[in-house]
Amino acid sequence: MRFTDVDVTPPPTAQHVFIARQPIFDGRDRRVAYELLYRASREATHAYVGDVSPALMCGDTALHALLSIGLEKLTAGTRAYVNVTEEHLLGELYKIFDPAAVVLELLETVDGSPAVVDACQRAVADGYTLALDDYDGRASLDPLLAFAKIVKVDVLATPDIRTLAPMVAALNARGITVLAERVETQEALAAARDAGFALFQGYVYSRPETLDGRAVNVQQATVFHIMALLNEPDATDGALEEAFRSHPSLSLSLLRIVNSASFGGRGVDSIPYAIRLVGREALSRWMLIMLVASVGSRSPVAHEAVMEALVRGRFCETVTAQGASGDPAARFLVGLLSRMDTLLGLPMAQVLERLPVSNDVRDALLEGTGPHAGVLRLADAYESAEWAMVDMLATDTQLSSLYAEAVTWANERLAKITS
Angle CA(374)–CA(378)–CA(381) in degrees, nearest 5? Predict the structure, then answer.
């Protein structure tokens, strides 16, 4: 794998299957699904095989990649919205998925031709849920409304989202749930709710204003203090024990960590022994996870942001471990901390004032420079499905597998802290 600041494109024969995800929330800010964003290959470089088009083969590659990685890893059992082209639909490639696990999202290029209508009828009869992407009310989509349970509307280009209320009401009257996508701000989210939208998707859920800035609470302040002690060579185990004792829930979390199978320390009931068993380096890593987990109890949106931070940290770590130059542990720290300003509702500079981080980590987070900046840009691009930027920054075909592993890892670690 290679990171670079130069526009270097991998050879045209290289085939990448990239899969990311974006959460979908309901009107009570509960995450109800993920849209899976994927790209099967850089270009349609495949030759025709019989009557099968390049688009169909690319779609086949992407859908089977989702299957091989496993929806469970990417969604933790939550329903997945899977993009479906007309070729996917007519070829019934979606049948590799359990109907209860997916929503088939027909892309905006699909119109209500007789062949498409017949295919939709078959899919619904087989138990699949259909959604229409980028619905704009054009007449050619009318035949598909009889089969769609969900309609997605891009609200970003609408100056006053409330003007969409009549269209939303008409769709609701037909029993169709309407989803507002590309919701960028709190103002847009409020307007979409007023217009009658029931589901929401967009960057508003990963922006700092979503998690209203609060003062750092007692537990978070204690975690900051313990992390500082762990990085202080002269700090004694007694000082660490006293810091844990000052917050009982942290002591309980420490014992849960040590009693997990990964440490083989079942039955440990002494804080000093637990500290020595885990070791300061590993404990420092767990404290970071505790820090982000402490924010997740605020709301379902906050919990999702915590998950994103853990996934990003692990993704940056494993990408580095696969061959990129650099320290995987430092890359984990950079990835995790890159969301801490959002999670704590504080400017990044203030977050870093409380944490003992190296200048390289600080430069990556504040300036976007230094040896860790490339992997952070890669994580940003991957999560945003900016595949052209991903191509520029990395030459690895296993990114989707690494991302799926990061999701599984984050789910497991967060469960140990919050259970």
Answer: 135
Residue 214 and residue 345 in contact, taking contact as beta carbons nearer than 8 Å: yes
Q: How crowded is residue 49: how many other Cβ atoms within 10 Å of its Cβ?
A: 10
The reported pTM is 0.69
Instruction: Give the sign of the dihedral formed by CA 198, CA 204, CA 210, CA 216.
Output: positive
The closest alpha carbon to 29, from 157, 234, 150, 186, belongs to: 186
Q: Which of 75, 120, 80 is nearest to 100 (CA)?
A: 80
Residues 345 and 182: their CA atoms lie apart, in Å, by 22
Q: How many residues does the chain have?
A: 419
- The reported pLDDT for the residue numbered 11 is 33
The tokens of 67 are what? 């299957």
pLDDT tens sequence across 143-178: 999 999 999 999 998 999 999 999 999 999 999 999
What is the C-alpha separation between 54 and 33, in angstroms, rounded? 30
- How far apart are alpha carbons 372 and 370 in whole angstroms? 6
pLDDT-derived band of residue 15, with 50, 70 and 90 as boundaries?
very low
How far apart CA 220 and CA 223 sit, in angstroms, is 5
The pLDDT of 95-106, averaged and rounded, is: 91
| Of residues 372, 386, 378, the one with CA closest to residue 403 | 378
Mean of the per-residue pLDDT values of the chain: 79
**Cβ neighbours, 10 Å, residue 399:** 22
Distances (CA, A) of 393 to 44, 142, 157, 375: 21, 42, 30, 8
Question: What residues does 37 pair with on adjacent strands?
Answer: 20
What fold is seen in the domain 18-207? TIM Barrel (3.20.20)
Provide the residue ranges of all domains of the chain, joining segments of one domain with +: 18-207, 218-293
